[in-house]
Structure formats: structure tokens, C-alpha cells
Amino acid sequence: MALEVLLVEDSPGDVRLTQEAFHAANNNVRLHVATDGVDAMAFLNRQGVHANAPRPDLTLLDLNMPRMDGRQVLARIKNDDGLKTIPTVILTTSTADDDIVTSYRLHANCYFSKPVQLEDFENLVKTINDFWLTVAKLPHEEILAPGAQGPKSGKSLGE
Amino acid sequence: MPLEVLVVEDSRGDIRLTQEAFRDVNPFIHLEVAHDGVEAMAFLRRQGAHLHAPRPDLILLDLNLPKMDGRQVLALIKDDDTLKTIPTVILTSSEAEADVLKSYQLQANCYLSKPMHFDAFHALVKCINDFWLTKVRLPQNDRGDESKPGAHAGRERAGNTSRGTKSGGIRRSDESDRRKRNAH
Q1: pTM for the structure as a whole
Q2: Domains and CATH numbers, chain A
Q3: Which residues 143-182 on chain B approach chain A with CB closer than 8 angstroms?
Q4: Which of A39, A153, B169, B172 is the most buried (most CB within 10 A)?
Q5: What interface predicted TM-score (ipTM) does this complex get?
Q6: Distance in Å, alpha carbon of B47 to nearest chain A alpha carbon
């Protein structure tokens, strides 16, 4: 059963690198990409072109993005009864203490700074895969998901 | 400077195993133990005997505890503006779907099942150390109490801070380097 990961990232280069790193780390992962916060919320709420989007098992969220930034996306996810249980990992170039504290205050599940070096970045993706998609127990949302309307096309661990 | 970890666990055997495993994997960790939910909250709020308790960098929280259970402790932590930023990892023998879901609803940072066998438990503690106490960026400036001048030093392993922005040079300057490597 594929694991669904939503990557919210506006840098095409970083998207490419993340795709490659996941491909190397775990070919059971299906990586979906939203290129800004508005696109991410449409994906999560299955709106527009995302009507058949799966529910992510994990979301990787950049902070600095056009239109709607990662802090706003995080706040919306963690205030939505249907979405808040999706583990949401901040993955950003920012190492500012303010960003770290704000993210945890908004209930980010954890925070990572993107490493500069390619090998370090690949290792980080592997670390995230190994921990979140292998070791951690993920929630199965089918039991109750009041916010999840629309087509139940989302594949999850439980199916 | 040690990293402070609060283990909230009522089983003496599990406490002992956790202490031994952390001693093996990271001697710089200072492990504190609360044996039930009431004691955990007293520790976090520095009440009674816990007046000088350090603020934990990480909490490992069992769900089934006497007096006040882990779900209540989790809800109190994540509703408290001064405590909610402390990463709180559920570490429990329960594998019940309802417990997993409820924990994430209450904003647990993650949920881990305690393995039955010692070797697997030891490996899980190593995994917690390597992930949460080594790789993850922990919050530094949200201390409930700044009375401990050395309190920040342990977090300096996270490195110096710099504000990352889209226009920042870090990734841009590296982009071509990454592409070059990718070409191979």
C-alpha cells in the first residue's frame, strides 16, 4: 500500500531533489506536490483540480511561499478537525528561532532546517522517511474525519 | 550541557529500561521521571517538590497512568501557551487505533508503540535520540523560565541561526552544485 506524502514547496529545484531523495529512500511513497499554500489547502480540502486527491499520511511544509505562507497553512491544518491529525513536518531554509517557536506553537509535529549540502539533504529525507513512515504510528483517519467531505478516494494505511 | 527529557511512566521496569537505554545511546541526556499524570503536571508547572524542575526539551508520555492519564496530560500541555511548544511523544504499549487517532487530535507530536522485546525497545530509544534529540530543531526561545543561565547551551548543537528566506543565498548558491551532483 503506497504511502501518500504531500510536499508543499515552491522551489522547483527543491521539489526535484525531494522527489529523487524519496525515490531512493522508499519507492513505496507517492509524493504529491503543492507549489504554494493556496494549492496545498485545495489539495487537502479536495477542491478544484484536487477533487480526487488522496489524504496525505504526512505533509512536508515549507514556511516561505507565495500567496499563502507555511505558517498560515499550518494554522489551518491544525485548527481543522478533519486535517489536524495529519503529521505536518516543517522543512524550511529558515533557522530563525522565531520560526521554530512559532511552528511548534502552531502544533507543527516537528521542525527541520534544510541542509545546504546535497548529501545532507538526501540523508534528511531518509531520516524523515525512516522515522515518520516506518517507526511512528500514523493515524488512520477513516474512523472519524468530520472535515473530510467529498469523494473518499483517499487511500490510507488502513485500506 | 545536558538535554532534559521528562519520562512520564508508571512501570518501574520500563523506567529502568528507558534509563539504561538512554545512558547507552546519549550520556548527555538528563532524564527526569514522573510516575503519574499529576506528578508530570506538577513537574512541568514547577509546583511542590518540583520547584526547581528544568523545562524539558522533550517529553515521553505513556497513555495509561494512575491518577491522571496520559491523554489528560497531553491535553493540558497542548492547551497551555507556555508548555505547548515542548515536543511530546506518546510512548505506550497501546496499539489501539483510537488511541493513536486521539493522541494526534490532541496535538501529540508523534506516537510510538513500545516494543515487547528489550532489543527492539533499546533500538527505539536510540531512534528517539537520533531523531528528536539530534536531527530535529527544538524550540529554544520559548523557555517558561529563564532563570537557568546554562539552559540554552545544550541546544547550541543546533548550530548558529540565520534567517532563511527565498532570496537567501544558501540554497541558490548550492543549486548548481546540487544539479551537477545529480547529473552523475
Answers
A1: 0.84
A2: 9-136 (3.40.50.2300)
A3: 158-166, 168, 170-171, 174-175, 177-179, 181-182
A4: A39
A5: 0.88
A6: 23
